């Protein structure tokens, strides 16, 4: 699956090479004020994901309305909104980012499979404040190029890892946030224990984000006990009959 996704991204980068208006980038870089993710100490914030579909499970929510969902995330305590911009596998769209940016004041994470600097320029033009970079997809020199470029453009990289080797790689990069993905990218099983196990290898001065498979207040409390500052949550929210109420339950995880 990951191979198919990356092959699709290569095709999209070729389209960007022809269509992206690079001249707009330096202009925007000067004028744009990024929205920062400021987390409260000793609390696990929620990065709420706009996730219409997954490549494994297909469509997650039939009556999914993107603007309503974004507004309900903002009203119910999300710290950041994660916007899936991949069309082919997640039924997202790059157009979602500017649309959501006009609706809410929260920082926006561009969630896609970034393989080229051109996608970083595009992310800036679309209005992203944070960008996901996946350690499993790149060797160290390439990750270094991408994280440095991301920062030069005024966006915050969220460096995603899956195991201890990738944590080591991430710690040699100029990143302030590491995202531990609980989803195994080989067999797509999800286990929150991945975050719990890897927490001790991430120093306190680096923000810890746990990604995938987080469903309950009990999960949030476990992440808090392991020093996580944020949880990236998609499916549990979009499949809930009341995503706003579900989000509030997760945000107020210690008030049960
Ligand atoms: O969500 C998937 O099925 C998936 C498959 C292949 C690669 C990545 C995938 N998900 C990306 C994500 O990291 C999640 O959307 C995100 O962490 C939220 O996870 P969840 O709360 O489990 O929806």
UniProtKB/TrEMBL annotation:
<protein>
    <recommendedName>
        <fullName>indole-3-glycerol-phosphate synthase</fullName>
        <ecNumber>4.1.1.48</ecNumber>
    </recommendedName>
</protein>
<dbReference type="InterPro" id="IPR013798">
    <property type="entry name" value="Indole-3-glycerol_P_synth_dom"/>
</dbReference>
<dbReference type="GO" id="GO:0004640">
    <property type="term" value="F:phosphoribosylanthranilate isomerase activity"/>
</dbReference>
<keyword id="KW-0028">Amino-acid biosynthesis</keyword>
<comment type="pathway">
    <text>Amino-acid biosynthesis; L-tryptophan biosynthesis; L-tryptophan from chorismate: step 4/5.</text>
</comment>
<keyword id="KW-0456">Lyase</keyword>
<keyword id="KW-0057">Aromatic amino acid biosynthesis</keyword>
<dbReference type="InterPro" id="IPR045186">
    <property type="entry name" value="Indole-3-glycerol_P_synth"/>
</dbReference>
<dbReference type="Pfam" id="PF00218">
    <property type="entry name" value="IGPS"/>
</dbReference>
<dbReference type="GO" id="GO:0004425">
    <property type="term" value="F:indole-3-glycerol-phosphate synthase activity"/>
</dbReference>
<keyword id="KW-0210">Decarboxylase</keyword>
<dbReference type="InterPro" id="IPR013785">
    <property type="entry name" value="Aldolase_TIM"/>
</dbReference>
<comment type="similarity">
    <text>Belongs to the TrpC family.</text>
</comment>
<keyword id="KW-0822">Tryptophan biosynthesis</keyword>
<dbReference type="GO" id="GO:0000162">
    <property type="term" value="P:L-tryptophan biosynthetic process"/>
</dbReference>
<feature type="domain" description="Indole-3-glycerol phosphate synthase">
    <location>
        <begin position="3"/>
        <end position="250"/>
    </location>
</feature>
<dbReference type="InterPro" id="IPR011060">
    <property type="entry name" value="RibuloseP-bd_barrel"/>
</dbReference>
């Amino acid at each position: 699956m990951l191979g198919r996704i990356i092959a699709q991204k290569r095709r999209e980068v070729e389209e960007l090479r022809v269509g992206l208006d690079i001249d707009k980038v330096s202009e925007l870089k000067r004028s744009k004020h990024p929205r920062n993710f400021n987390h409260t100490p000793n609390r696990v914030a929620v990065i709420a994901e706009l996730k219409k579909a997954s490549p494994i499970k297909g469509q997650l929510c039939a009556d999914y309305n993107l603007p309503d969902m974004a507004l309900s995330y903002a009203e119910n305590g999300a710290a950041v909104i994660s916007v899936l911009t991949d069309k082919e596998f997640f039924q997202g769209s790059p157009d979602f980012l500017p649309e959501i940016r006009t609706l809410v004041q929260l920082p926006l994470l561009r969630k896609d499979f970034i393989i080229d600097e051109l996608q970083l320029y595009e992310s800036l033009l679309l209005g992203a404040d944070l960008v996901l970079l996946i350690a499993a997809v790149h060797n160290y020199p390439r990750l270094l190029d991408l994280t440095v470029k991301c920062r030069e453009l005024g966006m915050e990289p969220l460096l995603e890892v899956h195991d201890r080797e990738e944590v080591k790689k991430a710690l040699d990069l100029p990143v302030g946030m590491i995202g531990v993905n609980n989803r195994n990218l080989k067999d797509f099983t999800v286990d929150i224990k991945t975050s719990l196990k890897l927490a001790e290898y991430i120093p306190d001065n680096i923000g810890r984000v746990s990604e995938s498979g987080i469903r309950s207040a009990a999960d949030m409390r476990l992440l808090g006990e392991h020093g996580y500052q944020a949880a990236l949550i998609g499916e549990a929210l979009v499949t809930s009959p009341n995503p706003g109420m579900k989000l509030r339950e997760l945000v107020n995880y210690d008030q049960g």
